[in-house]
Amino acid sequence: MTLSSSVQPADLEVVRASYDRVADNYVDLLQTTGMGDIRTQPWLQASIDAFASSVRGLGPVLDVGCGPGTVTAYLQERGIEVSGVDLSPRMIEHAKRLHPECSFAVASSTELDLEPSSFGGILGWWSLFNLPREILPNVLAAFHDALVPGGQFMIATHVGDDDAARTEAYGGVAVTWTTYQWRPEQLTKLLEDAGLRVVADLRIPAEGVYGPLVVLHARRDT
């Protein structure tokens, strides 16, 4: 399924340019502090491990918004046939350099051409929060159609009631994007409306500079 241009976010190119600018700093922070490395966060690592177990044998997996490919590579190390896409060309340059054993391509979640029933799993790991509220339902519907029956989808994102306009990120780099925050029950409803049944719900309270966070694991039943 191809999402039509009528549902492209108005700020898509601005957000893409922002992630290109922060990509180098993001990778430096990942390598020097472990920021974004699930191996440093046991509950998040357990979520990815559960996702890997649930998709094994169902077909290929797509990591949407893969950034520099950290989670993509983690899944491949666990025997999952996985590829990654990201809207930022600079992020994909880093992903290919850091994880040459994996397959990566430049694409936004709203620019994907997904064949029906072609994936065993789709992952949206802190990568869909820049999608405007009117856009996300279309993306989830496309993901549903791209999954095989029994296929798995997992989303991780920020919890809140407000939309936060960001002007800097990852070491003070100038950016222009909005972080759309959701209540878990709102996201659950969106997933259900897209035909995806939530089978697990992990909520992590705020701690330090992180959170609150939610991870929802859903399944396409038919």
Outline the structure in words.
The chain has 222 residues and is an alpha/beta fold. The chain has a single domain, classed as 3-Layer(aba) Sandwich (Rossmann fold). The protein is 34% helix and 29% strand. The strands form 2 sheets. Strands 3-2-1-4-5-9-8 form a 7-stranded mixed sheet, sandwiched between helices. The protein has a two-stranded antiparallel sheet with strand order 6-7. Pfam families: Methyltransf_25.
Please give the structural blueprint:
Elements: H1 12-33, H2 42-55, E1 61-64, H3 70-77, E2 82-86, H4 89-98, E3 103-106, E4 119-125, H5 136-146, E5 147-158, E6 163-169, E7 173-180, H6 184-193, E8 196-204, E9 213-220
Parallel strand pairs: 1-2, 1-4, 2-3, 4-5
Antiparallel strand pairs: 5-9, 6-7, 8-9
Q: Which key features would you list for this structure?
A:
methyltransferase; SAM-dependent_MTases_sf; transferase; seven-stranded mixed beta sheet; globular; 6 helices; 222 residues; Class I SAM-dependent methyltransferase; Rossmann fold; two-stranded antiparallel ribbon; alpha/beta
| Number of domains as seen in the coordinates | 1
Morphology: globular
Radius of gyration: 16 Å
CATH fold field value: Rossmann fold
At CATH level 2, the architecture is 3-Layer(aba) Sandwich
Low-confidence stretches: 1-6
Largest sheet strand order: 3-2-1-4-5-9-8
Domain Methyltransferase: 61-151
Protein name: Class I SAM-dependent methyltransferase
Organism: Kribbella pittospori
InterPro entries: Methyltransf_25 (IPR041698), SAM-dependent_MTases_sf (IPR029063)
